[in-house]
UniProtKB/TrEMBL annotation:
PANTHER family: PHOSPHOLIPASE C-BETA-2-RELATED, SCAVENGER RECEPTOR CLASS A MEMBER 3. Residues 165-199 form the C4-type zinc ribbon domain. InterPro entries: CT398_CC_hairpin, Oxidative_Scav/Glycosyltrans, Zf-RING_7. Keywords: Coiled coil. The keyword Coiled coil applies. Pfam families: CT398_CC (PF24481), Zn_ribbon_9 (PF02591). This is C4-type zinc ribbon domain-containing protein. Residues 57-105 form a coiled coil. It comes from the Bacteria. Residues 2-153 form the CT398-like coiled coil hairpin domain.
């Protein structure tokens, strides 16, 4: 997501730069048209005044015709630049929308991650407290055994038996092990022969 957002920002900067270049072209083209229009207006005033020689007035007439053609050409340039400006503005608007959408998604994901992390931290703190309370009721030798097994088995020192299967390693207990567990007193600590975890007997153990 961060890379996508960075790429969109780069594309948007490029689009804004292109729009700026076209805007300068448009300003220059419009200034050129204005200059020609002003020059033609001055010549027209001189021509209409009738001052000057016939040769001067004839030259003014020719210049007005040249200026008219020049104005037409420049106005075509202005129209072409305006069309490119519309395209550039549309591109900037599109990339801005995509950038904003990506930013909103990133912010939403970030907020969700923060909320989830806070929830996990709160749950971990709660479970740590509960574990400390429960650990205080367990005999020290049994707790020490649990900690050793837990350290050796990826943090899982005890596992329930469900339908004659160890929930720690997911292996089914063989018949001799099932019979031994059945015969053992309810308060006797039993361990799985395969994985070594402490086995916890529950209502659906299937024993």
């Amino acid at each position: 997501m961060d890379q996508r957002l960075a790429d969109l920002r780069d594309v948007l900067i490029a689009a804004e730069t292109a729009q700026g270049d076209v805007a300068r072209e448009q300003k220059k083209a419009e200034a050129d048209v204005e200059q020609v229009v002003n020059r033609a207006a001055r010549d027209r005033q001189l021509l209409e005044s009738g001052r000057g020689s016939a040769k001067d007035l004839e030259n003014l007439q020719h210049e007005l015709e040249t200026l008219a053609r020049r104005q037409s050409d420049l106005e075509d340039v202005v129209l072409e630049v305006m069309e490119r400006m519309e395209t550039a503005q549309a591109r900037v608007a599109e990339m801005t929308a995509q950038r904003d959408e990506a930013q909103a998604r990133r912010d939403a994901i970030g907020a969700a991650i923060t909320a989830a992390t806070d929830g996990i931290d709160a749950e971990a703190a709660k479970l740590t407290g509960e574990r400390a309370t429960v650990a205080g009721t367990i005999p020290e030798d049994l707790l020490a055994l649990y900690e050793r097994v837990r350290a050796a088995h990826a943090g899982v020192g005890a596992a329930a038996i469900r339908q004659r299967r160890c929930e720690g390693c997911r292996l089914e207990l063989d018949i001799s092990e099932v019979n031994a567990i059945k015969a053992a007193p309810a308060d006797q600590v039993v361990r799985h022969e395969e994985c070594g975890r402490i086995l916890v007997r529950v209502p659906d153990s299937g024993l």
